[in-house]
Amino acid sequence: MMGRFSIFVIGLSICLSICFFPEAEAQLRQNFYANVCPNVESIVRTAVTRKFQQTFVTVPGTIRLFFHDCFVDGCDASVIIASTPNNKAEKDHPDNLSLAGDGFDTVIKAKAAVDATPGCTNKVSCADILVMATRDVIALSGGPSYSVELGRLDGLSSKASSVNGKLPKASFNLDQLNAMFAANGLNQNDMIALSACHTVGFSHCNQFQNRIFNFSRSNPIDPTLNRQYAGQLQSMCPRGVDPTIAINMDPTTPRTFDNVYFQNLQQGKGLFTSDQILFTDGRSKATVNTWASNSQAFNQAFITAMTKLGRVGVKTSPANGNIRRDCGAFN
Question: What is the third-level CATH fold of 22-167+311-322?
Fold first, then answer.
């Protein structure tokens, strides 16, 4: 009798755990909020569209915010946390200081719109809102639309020190890029597809100035750089001028999310070393050529890569995450 009672208690305990703490067993899935906040995706899309109509910087700002979040301790919105006197958060690490404020503002406004909806208040994580907002800005700027997996919790930690060595540099070669992406479960095709996010947005002169003025003693201009394009960059980023001047990363269609990024690489118009290396290195050149001529193939590869990126380091248990009331502060 006692044995049966013990089994009953254990079974009841497991049942209660599942019933009252479903997050503990949760996995990412589409329509995660169907029974909680069924219109969340349309609510977020409306807020993001409104922000997009105010400024195009919403697009690259949000995309970059998502990438920087996921590559540092997983997709948990920890990059949005503001620093306090007792904690220097991720967003204040030198590698994150150039993140556009419009990316943060997009998530904050979408979160406010969700929480203002009856039944949705404090039911949707900032991490999931960032994923949805990223998908939406990509579609709004001409890129592919796709379904997103949801169910992430917001992280409980955000430290500037955790950013060290987690984000790719503009000077990286193919081996360095592949190694960093592989550490996050992403292969070379994923890396090349995600690099195409440089088809929108801007960078600052100090990120590529070495390629146009002092590449080497015998050749001051990087020989893999298109000479006419190099001349244009020199005129926009002259020596001795403020290195924080913003330059479009895609010189051809800077406000459209498209495969022109790869066509630019074929012409020697990759802004960063880490861009142009995708074409000059034989191990990745064939992929660049394929996607330069086949936008459908690129779009599918990009959707696959974004889905995989969105799974990196997610928190789905209340032991390591929760739903923040304020995306910029811990509960």
Answer: Peroxidase; domain 1 (1.10.520)
Q: Which residues are annotated as a binding site for substrate?
A: 168
Q: Which residues does the annotation place in the binding site for Ca(2+)? A: 69, 72, 74, 76, 78, 90, 199, 250, 253, 258
pLDDT tens-digit readout, 256-303: 999 999 999 999 999 999 999 999 999 999 999 999 999 999 999 999
Q: Read off the pTM.
A: 0.91
Residue stretches of the annotated binding site: 69, 72, 74, 76, 78, 90, 168, 198-199, 250, 253, 258
Question: Phi and psi (nearest 5°) for 11?
Answer: -65, -40
Q: Is residue 204 flagged as an active site residue?
A: no
Contacts of 81-88 with CB under 8 Å at 24 or more apart are: 81/158, 81/328, 81/329, 81/330, 82/328, 82/329, 83/160, 87/158, 87/159, 88/159, 88/160, 88/161
Q: Output the pLDDT for position 214.
A: 87
- Single out the catalytic residue among 51, 64, 68, 269: 68
The CATH superfamily of 174-309 is Peroxidase, domain 2 (1.10.420.10)
Q: Could you state, in order of their start, the residue ranges of all structural domains in the chain?
A: 22-167+311-322, 174-309
